[in-house]
Amino acid sequence: MRSKTKRLMVATFCLMALLASVVFAYGTSVAQVPGGTLDPLSIPQFVEPLVIPPVMPAKGVQFDKSIGKFVPYYEIEVVQFNQQVLPQRDINNAQLNPTTVWSYAAVGRPETRNYPAWTIENLKDLPSRVKWVNNLKDASGNYLPHLLPIDQTLHWANPSMDCIDHDHGMMMQQMRNMVMTDCRGQSQEPYRGPVPIVTHVHGAHVQPNSDGYPEAWYLPAANNVGGFATEGTRYDDIFGGSGRGKGFAVFQYPNDQRSTTLWYHDHTLGMTRANVYAGPAGFFMIRDLKDLSLGLPGPAPLPGVDPNGNPLVRKFIREIPIVIQDRSFNADGSLFYPGNRAFFESLNVPGKPEQFPDAGVLDIPFIPDFAQGGGRSDVSPIWNPEFFGNTMVVNGKTWPFLKVEQSRYRLRFLNGSDSRFLILQNDNHLPFWQIGADGGFLPAPVQLDRLLIAPAERADVIVDFSNVPVGTEIVL
Ligand SMILES: [Cu+2]
């Protein structure tokens, strides 16, 4: 295999303010990050307002006998829909299509469909219970295939049960009288079957049976899932075995931890990267009534009030969750994600159209083929060890802007990228006052001019726009 040249791109973010109040938005410097057929330089920046994720509605309450308390109960499904992630028009005024994405939404409440998902609000020490439904089905009840190329040769969910280690697999199957999933597959083709989903709340204190183990996945309850394993090997552990059924699992979160910023996302074995890239992720806040005495900027979005398209509500809000994700797109608006290992090597695939003009081809044996010398190849044909997108998507829009008041704001950042570390700074030299991180509040606020956030990491930050003149533009 040819050695690869490491592609380096510094994530230069820009914070930008404009208008009669203060506004800010996000941009990235020009850099040649390879991606799909949509040229990121054709996407106008700072034309769409930042979406403020509303609060996920609960279905009701349920009585938990073991603790003798009523607990909030949610029914949340993963669904597929179209969303205008790109602006409506490119820089030449040509139309840009909506993007087909997945996300979480309240069951039976299509108005809650948004990528990223609406925020689940929790009170410390009050458990919450969620029925997580995999509803990746079409209108006629058949399963929807994945939006992105899924490598079947990794150690992954493998609902097709075509385990490479077949003899071992058969023996295990007979011994344990169970189907063999959660293994490396034989096929070098992308998986086109029904999509496994299992949800994990990142950073939550939780019992194993509600953790969303990677092997606890389940398929949608679709008409045509015959021939596939419908659950992973740890599915039976779910909620003590009582909170499960076809196409769903019920998990309970004790919320017995410090108030903090958590997030929920798919966690399926060997395909979390692609499932999360397709969209399903949202904030999961734990709040402590004691925090009300801290005098932090607020309020956050309130239950039952969608702040988007409502200037009065937006003017009032002072706490905003912000998830930043790098993505790449194709000219038809679809998400781009690499479909071959050669992409990672900046090389071409033999016999396929060039993805890197004038580069060579990657012509090596892939799993399960045997390499020279007799050993099995250990290189997967589709999977890329890391991925960098060439646009910045913030709360489900490319390079949005936000009007702010002359006031302090609490910004709850999440880096929802696959591989990219983010270094945030702004061109107005406004300091970030970091007050919290993954586990909760810091002992004291820390003043920073740059904010480094790793993938999946959160930063709870106060930015003070009080003394910024009206009309200023700040680029993050
Ligand atoms: Cu996570």
So what's the CATH class? Mainly Beta
Number of domains: 1
- Low-pLDDT segments: 1-31
Termini separation:
40 Å
- Structural class assignment: mainly beta
Second-tier CATH architecture: Sandwich
Helix content: under 10%
How does the overall form come out from the CA principal axes?
globular
**Contiguous helical run count:** 4
Report mean pLDDT, rounded to a whole number. 90
CATH homologous superfamily heading: Cupredoxins -  blue copper proteins
Radius of gyration: 23 Å
Quaternary structure type: single chain
What is the strand content? 25-35%
Which cofactors or ions or other ligands sit in this model?
A: copper (II) ion
Topology:
Elements: E1 13-15, E2 22-28, E3 60-64, E4 69-83, E5 99-106, E6 117-123, E7 128-134, E8 155-156, H1 166-176, E9 183-184, E10 199-202, E11 244-245, E12 248-253, E13 260-266, H2 272-277, E14 281-287, H3 311-316, E15 319-329, E16 335-336, H4 341-344, E17 391-394, E18 397-398, E19 401-404, E20 408-415, E21 422-424, E22 432-437, E23 440-448, E24 451-453, E25 458-464, E26 473-475
Parallel strand pairs: 2-26, 4-7, 6-14, 15-20
Antiparallel strand pairs: 1-2, 2-19, 3-4, 4-5, 7-12, 8-9, 10-13, 11-12, 13-14, 15-16, 15-17, 17-18, 20-25, 21-24, 22-23, 22-25
